[in-house]
Amino acid sequence: MADQETNGSVAAETTRDVPVFVPPTDIIETESSLLMVLDVPGADPDSLDVTLDKRVLRIAARSASSHPEGCTLQHAEYRDGNYERSFVISEPVDAAKIEAVFKDGVLRLTLPKATPAPAAKIPVKAA
Amino acid sequence: MLAYQGNAGRWFDPLRQIRLMQQDMNRLMDSLRAPAPPEFPLINIWTGPDGAVITAEIPGVSPDDLEITVHQNTVTLRGQRVAEPVGEGDILHRRERVAGAFARSLVLPFRVDGDKAAAMFRNGLLRLDLPRPEADRPRKITVSRS
Fold first, then answer.
1. B55: contact with A, CB 8 A cutoff
2. Could you report the predicted ipTM of this complex, rounded to two decimals?
3. Which of A44, A54, A59, A121, CA to CA, is 20 to 30 A from B55?
4. Which residues of chain B have pLDDT under 70?
């Protein structure tokens, strides 16, 4: 029973032996779009992977090593690793117009809201 | 340790016992504090044959807004990170990124040659090269036979 309950909620492991971090995110909704700002310091721009599958937006990135050559580590407050985070987007989003900009270790995603189809009025006939 | 010092009365008094226990619990709870906010920026310190290298995670800060000063053996890193602006009528769903002014000072175990110190900023990672002055570097002494 316990196995069935935890199935699906247990995080999958990566094949590389590196930690996976959850990047801190700001999410601001404006009238026309959804702005997401993620901190991914040290991420390799080529490895950035943003996918929108149905309603799940997944952001993944690999960070390049920050090890200076010929040096030994004396004190560490952060580690190199991968970034991964998923969000469920509740608003209908125009997937074709999503913009992603990576600058100075910050990924900015702009997701324009899909324009809703005008509500169709159905006339009711009195019988 | 919980010590019931007041339990020296002649009679066993359950109400007093409860009161004393409450005092002990209050004392325990008083010492609990919310954890300190994490430092910003996070820093790694490396040492090499020429001196030290400091790498720091500073995403979203323009290199022009960073102020790095070196004085003898003290390195100070100052800057400011602006919060994401929220316009009127906008809805803020999450704010997890820290914002505001920051400053960190590090005291190294040797003097730094300020003229040769170099800083590089790439993809949100800062790399500071802090070489030791030539005169301060350790010298290898060869032992000769008499």
1. yes
2. 0.77
3. A59
4. 1-10, 33-38
Structure tokens at B76: 């100070």
Residue A88 amino acid letter: V
Q: With an 8 Å Cβ cutoff, is B100 touching chain A?
A: no
More confident residue, A5 or B26: B26
pTM over 0.90: no
State whether A74 and B45 contact (CB < 8 Å): yes
The yes-or-no verdict on residue A1 having pLDDT over 90 is no
Nearest of B118, B139, B136 to residue B53 by alpha carbon: B118
Q: In this structure, which amino acid lies at residue B94?
A: R
Q: Are B46 and A106 an interchain contact pair (Cβ–Cβ within 8 Å)?
A: no
Q: Which amino acid is at B55?
A: T
